[in-house]
Amino acid sequence: MPSGKFDKPVVIDNHDGTVTFKYDPKEIGTHELHIKYNLEHVQGSPYKFHVDSIGNGTLTAYGPGLVQGVAGEPCSITVSNKSNAIGKMNVNVEGPSKAEVTCHDNKDGTMSVTYVPPSPGEYKVTIKAGDAHIRGSPFLAKIRAEGRKRSQITFGHSSEVSLDVQEKEVKCLNASIIAPSGLEEPCFVKKRQDGSLGISFTPREEGEHLVQVKKLGKHLPGSPFKINVLVKDIGNASKVKITGNGLKEGKTHAENQFVLHTSDAGFGGINFSVEGRSAAELKCEDKGEGVIVCSYRPSEPGYYVVNLKFADHNIPGSPFTVKVTGPGSNIIRETIKKKIDQVPPVDIGQECKLVFRLPGTNAFDMAAKVTNPTGVTDDAVIVDMEDCQYGVYFTPKEPGMHTVSVRYKEIHIPGSPFQFTVGSVQSFGAHKVHAGGLGLERGGANEPCEFSLYTREAGPGTLHISVEGQSRADIGIKEISPGTFCVNYKVTEAGQYRVGIKFNDEPIPDSPFKVYILPDVGEGRKIELGHVPDAGLQVNKPIAFTIQMNGAKGLIDGKVISPSGGEDDCFVSPIDEDSWALRFIPRENGIHQIHLRHNGTHIPQSPFRIVIGHDDADPAAVQASGNGLKECKSGVKTDFLINTCNAGSGQLAVTIEGPSKVSMDCTEVADGYKVRYTPLAPGDYFVIIKYNGYHIVGSPFKVHCTGMAVAEPGGVETSSVVVETVAKQSKHKGDQLPRFRSDPAKITSKGPGLKKAITHKMNSFQVNCQEAGNNILFVSLYGPKGPCDEIHVKHTGRNMFNVSYMVKDRGEHILIIKYGNDHIPGSPFKVDCT
């Protein structure tokens, strides 16, 4: 209460899954209502509301719209004044997005006020009588994004200019255009239909522009080129005309159309997004002469917010609030939340542990490696903790971000590679939470679906997990180790479900996840895939597997999906009454997925993953650096480098999300790929970098942008580029050796082979470098007639080495052991050979 005292409302169970709170206020002023479930605040709690007296003749406002609401849904307020003219009242709502306000005089001394906030955040509701605020004004309303879905599409329409360039190959070329104001943006280099080289860009200013075209960092002859932009070419959103009823009203399960007329608006791209209770299928079709037909198809009734931009500026009237009516899809949504404490930091020399759960596996087929901040990679120890839980143990020798890679049968497990910071974590937030597991891809009706959450790097906060689909979900969450959680859920009907994960009300990377729940497999549970070799499978050589039916009756069909996404020819035929054979010829190296169905339904564990040849695309080896991952300024070009040396070939996908779209390009350089981008509005941007579908360590990167807006900020705008990379090796290996930090004085050695050796037999000793840091171990043995014929050095894990050698000559030998450039204690050793 305003006095600081506490009071309890009456709680009434409505016996329909809802409760009602009743409270008789005793004081005038701002109150806070705390609502907790299992001792934790529900979403939005505490709620603030203002209590006033209506007996003094002043204007009084009440209603949920003064306190809280849901984005895209109407928020209601009632203003009461029994003895004064209600017409002198003025209502204004300000927040992250423009909210339309409607007022209706009820002719009884009250007025009903409704506003629809397009996006979540904190809104300020100002109510004035004449020029004076009413008591409690301005009010702060918390608007949450509960169950909101956003769909977005970009329809390009840029200006193309031909350049007088002799270079005909666009590979390794990059271009940028500088406007008269100094605004520099990357632009696309492309081959035109007539074979000439040209650029495409969105003109923003009138006058002479400079186009810089470079190859591997050097200007091409004639660069920079001069081009002139006329006023009629500049994209002008205010000249875009809209016709059609799709922005006035909508229907579920129907194409709601409207038409954009851009013939008089210059050059510019269309950015079309719809946000509401369901994801909507969006379409844009160019009919020619500047006419673009747009449509959206929602599946749930409610209020939807339609954002339309042309040349990065809002079209007049945007965002539009549209009421969609019609039958829904009977979607059921269940949620659960969990409070997360901050994981204590670990220091140098302290044993680190990363725990994960992976059902249906064993430790014998797993391998783990840890790469420290200086680039040195060591094996890590994997411990089987029972019930398919495993612990990865390592002892760091330096502070900073470490990369933990865990593979099962040569394939990264979900979530790998993991980020593990030694020392204090510098950046917290939802972008540091990662999720992975089969339960985020597929599952079966009436069967537990499971996935893992890793929050170690995210700091303290609250997890919100939702599952929505055709049936109610039973959700559970369990902490199996600090920073690692196991989430399981079960649904009763087949279909497509959405699993949403938020941390502190912000979605984590890749959320929401689409999960396909299969019907009950029935007899398909009995079917098993025969032995699959873990290695030795080769490209262009036939591969055959046996499928054991184990008494199941019916037909088997299958398909094989290659690493590039193509479908390989696959033949499934019966061998006898209880077994089938699957045959195919792989055409690519990498991970293939084998889909097997029994009577049209996937059998358990389908699709199976196998490695053909050697999958050399390793996301753990990809590193990103540069100022463009740390900070940027609106309207100023920035860049970063993605180093793919020793990471093999694969698909590199870069996505930048933020308050505006960005002009972006990606060009090949000696050590990988350089990404340049120009943000157009201040705020926080997230740079997402994936390699073959896996996040690289550090992704998403949070980049804060300062400066003035060049384009109108919107909700969340997305820009992407995808590149098929080629395998790269460092050309200057000697110059790029890791910076080792080691102390050879801490090395110990033992074994008979350090003092005596027997000719024509293997002699051995051990070297323990556990406490000495990381470096390269060199071993050499020199005898009376020259060097030793045979020496074997084997790393047994955790910087422990077994050394064995064979000598043929009798006499005194010199054994030299160095760690880097320094001798270990006792080296050089004198070895007597008999």
UniProtKB/TrEMBL annotation:
Q: Which UniProt keywords apply?
A: Actin-binding, Cytoplasm, Cytoskeleton, Repeat
One cellular-component annotation, GO: cytoskeleton
Matching InterPro entries: Filamin (IPR044801), Filamin/ABP280_repeat-like (IPR017868), Filamin/ABP280_rpt (IPR001298), Ig-like_fold (IPR013783), Ig_E-set (IPR014756)
**Is the keyword Repeat assigned to this protein?**
yes
Which residues lie within the region annotated Disordered? Answer: 733-752
Gene3D superfamilies, alphabetized: Immunoglobulins
Q: Which SUPFAM superfamilies match?
A: E set domains
Q: Name one GO molecular function term.
A: actin filament binding
Repeat as a keyword of this entry, yes or no, is yes
Q: Where in the cell is it found?
A: Cytoplasm, Cytoskeleton
Which ranges are annotated Basic and acidic residues under compositional bias? 733-744
- In Swiss-Prot or TrEMBL terms, this protein is called Putative filamin
Protein species of origin: Cupiennius salei
